[in-house]
Amino acid sequence: MNEAIPATRSIVVERVLAQPPGKVWRALTQDWLIADWLMQNDFVPEPGHRFTFRTAPMPHWNGVVEGEVLAVEPERLLTYRWDVPGEGGGLRTVVTWTLTAQGPGVLLRMEQAGFAAGQEANFRGAELGWQRFITALERVLEEKA
Amino acid sequence: MQPILSEALFRTLGDPTRRALFERLARDGEQSVHALTEQAGVSQPMVSRHLGALKAAGLVTDRRQGRETHYRARPEGLAPLVDWMALYGAFWNERFDALENLLGRMDQ
Questions:
Q1: pLDDT averaged over consecutive 10-residue blocks of chain B (108 residues)?
Q2: pLDDT tens, A17-48?
Q3: Domain contains A31
Q4: Is residue A93 part of a domain?
Q5: Deepest in the core among A7, A98, B47, B56, taking most CB within 10 A?
Q6: B2-79: CATH number
Q7: How many domains, in total, are found in chain A?
Q8: For every residue of chain B, which 3-state class applies, written as one string?
Q9: What is the CATH number of the domain that holds A79?
Q10: From the candidates A9, A75, A123, which should be mutated to test the interface with B, based on the most B CB atoms within 10 A?
Q11: Chain A: residues touching B (Cβ < 8 Å)
């Protein structure tokens, strides 16, 4: 087989938190806490558990993220699918949280992997500012909704 | 599959007359070809051609009513053009702020 595996890209956000790992872990895994800082959800930190995150709908998105827990290592690692079905393929990513003790605190790292590579390279050379056009248009549509 | 669809969208929206038609429909709701032509600044056959391109790209839908065809925008058709990484980059930074805020309010 000689199939090219499409390259994907990731977003990484990292912060050192002056908080004990256990507290951070609870905020990441308990549904009423997740609802406070992330989105409404029916999350349970068990591998295989399917859940949804929900937020207010937008013109081109119903506000629903479909998830599935992939890995759980208490106070160390949490991985789940983050899928947004939709036109043009939507979004199929994996979010991984890692906690690393740093002195009295914890380094919290979030990586969201699986973004399609190269698509916007087609658009980057455009002189028309179409992205700004779409952003402005979306604002109009949101105001009307 | 995905890149081809997005290139069609890109080409479709690359034309300023088409962008204006799409924007007008998105802003003002469903309109007839006749009404769209009045403000388009080009002939009705040209308007129909542009609307056909927008329809092929999934950005508008149409319906016949008597002898008139009415067009409606499909904002969800923009979804493939969304810059997901830029969107989520901002999103996660905001969520981290909210998480830190929550942690500060939690007792333990």
A1: 55 86 91 94 95 93 95 84 79 95 92
A2: 999 999 999 999 999 999 999 999 999 999 99
A3: yes
A4: yes
A5: B47
A6: 1.10.10.10
A7: 1
A8: CHHHHHHHHHHHHCCHHHHHHHHHHHHHCCEEHHHHHHHHCCCHHHHHHHHHHHHHCCCEEEEEECCEEEEEECHHHHHHHCCHHHHHHHHHHHHHHHHHHHHHHCCC
A9: 3.30.530.20
A10: A123
A11: 9, 11, 13, 15, 17, 19-20, 23-24, 26-27, 33, 36-38, 59-61, 86-91, 108, 110, 112, 115-116, 118-120, 122-123, 126, 128, 130-131, 133-134, 137-138, 140-141, 144
